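Q: Could you write out the predicted structure for this multi-component system? I'm mainly interested in how the pieces pack against one another.
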Amino acid sequence: MTASHDVPFRLVIHGGAGAIKQSRLSAEREAAYRQVLTQSLSAGYDVLKIGGSCIDAVTAAIVVMEDSPLFNAGKGSVFSREGQNELEASIMEGSTRLAGAVAGVTTVRNPIRAAHAVMTKSTHTMLIGPGAEIFAAEQGLEIVDPEYFHTSYRWEQLQKALAKKQVLRDHDIDSNRPFTNNDKKHGTVGAVALDRHGNLAAGTSTGGLTNKRRGRVGDSSIIGAGTYADNRSVAVSATGTGEMFIRTAAAYQTAAQIMLLQKPIHEAADTTLKEISSIGGDGGLIVLNVKGDYAMRFNTSGMYQGTIGHNGIAWTGIFHDESEI
Amino acid sequence: MTASHDVPFRLVIHGGAGAIKQSRLSAEREAAYRQVLTQSLSAGYDVLKIGGSCIDAVTAAIVVMEDSPLFNAGKGSVFSREGQNELEASIMEGSTRLAGAVAGVTTVRNPIRAAHAVMTKSTHTMLIGPGAEIFAAEQGLEIVDPEYFHTSYRWEQLQKALAKKQVLRDHDIDSNRPFTNNDKKHGTVGAVALDRHGNLAAGTSTGGLTNKRRGRVGDSSIIGAGTYADNRSVAVSATGTGEMFIRTAAAYQTAAQIMLLQKPIHEAADTTLKEISSIGGDGGLIVLNVKGDYAMRFNTSGMYQGTIGHNGIAWTGIFHDESEI
């Protein structure tokens, strides 16, 4: 398919779903989040506009959020019980259905780039731990000292969680609130893109859960759970209570409902979220098809989200009353 | 639901699908495989007969195959490029849809037990590497020296693969044949069970691929890819070219076709295998529903398989002309 300037393209991103309370989000902090979301959209747009691939657009958008300390991915990732940052990411392309994922990485500056390299430069789909880090280094990706990911904000979150013996999901913008088991703050960043060639891609990246057990892997590096892309259906990226997204194969389930039942995409996403809710979880999904139809659905109070199409106008949102669908 | 002696129960197992050639399988070797398959069925049957849970039956059946050096799981696992045994396993229960998985484990004698412990004794769904091994030890599981898994047979497979610079799938019963990229020999073991309480469970365990990169994870520890269980549809365990099973979310895809389209189970499995084949992979699936209907489907020349129901008569098979469906 020849790239045409009339062919629509789109990028949809999320910076995590969670218990984000508008009343407690200071104007400055909200502006800071929206700024990074806009930068992320801009980075992906720059790729798509000139006919670049959906995979490169997803990677570019996610890298911006990984590099920002505001999101629970890359720099600014949450800490495990042992005070480590253990990162994970996955990426998938919709025409070939090639995919790549890494988990348990501690020195790769941009896990999404490592996932991309696994997909395109190896014969495997998923690499974990030291094996993943060695591969990333072999591929010339930027390797950092583990301290790079550390932010005092996340370190304090860990200390609070340890004191209360809780595992926390992230997106704490209510830093003065006591943590409870009902606090559902989910970090994780993701993107789905449709390029001028008519191909879809999806990607997701996270630092996981505050106070998680060492070695805990969530949905963000599991193809079919946190990430899926298939030109015949949709590209999906998820954020939420990882374990429940794995157990419901959330990303694939959303795509399957669309492919097998031809459900409208927002309905498929809502059905998936409803099932996740029925087993005690919550979060959000961004979904995009080859016609450029998209949905940003979440059953938490908020989800950092954004989208940009070929008209170049970026839209960002956080709360339900802003969501376009 | 009260356990009733009239309620059917069933166990279906596989010991891997691959390029198993009847003409090259000595009578002694074939008998040895069938014997372990029968022991595995017997172990699971003993659990189900007295009203034990599907999860315990799946675990018992898989432990027998992990403990046998004949299968690429637990003892007898294949070696990575660096000469290490890196094991993975996953398990899932169909009424709660709780699941557990481990990957990158090197000292846990029975990875399926570790996956079971993750499911029932942690708040997580997947643990990898040292974190998984520490957890397994904390749970009192048997920890062994990494040398425990070593068999000269698998070590020789690695040496041949290194000499030819190939990554191999397993089940080499043609030890005199030169290895080629077209040799598709898949190890991995798995089981699906229906207990007297009407619940389904699925489990899978493997050593992965001969000469795999360090840290490579295949479908056997990925919920939705190698393992899935949902009372509303089916329990599934897969064996094959792991990367393609991940990319097609094979286990979940099989269940989704049944749940969303009410396809007969063998048809759903065949459709999944056809998609896997279309992206260059192959292997097999075992599938079981709450009525006790089951299927053992594979698009390789053979798949070590077996089943037993409440009449206590074990059936084992390897080749297509034996398969009951």
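A: Regarding packing and overall arrangement: The longest strand of chain B covers residues 10-18.
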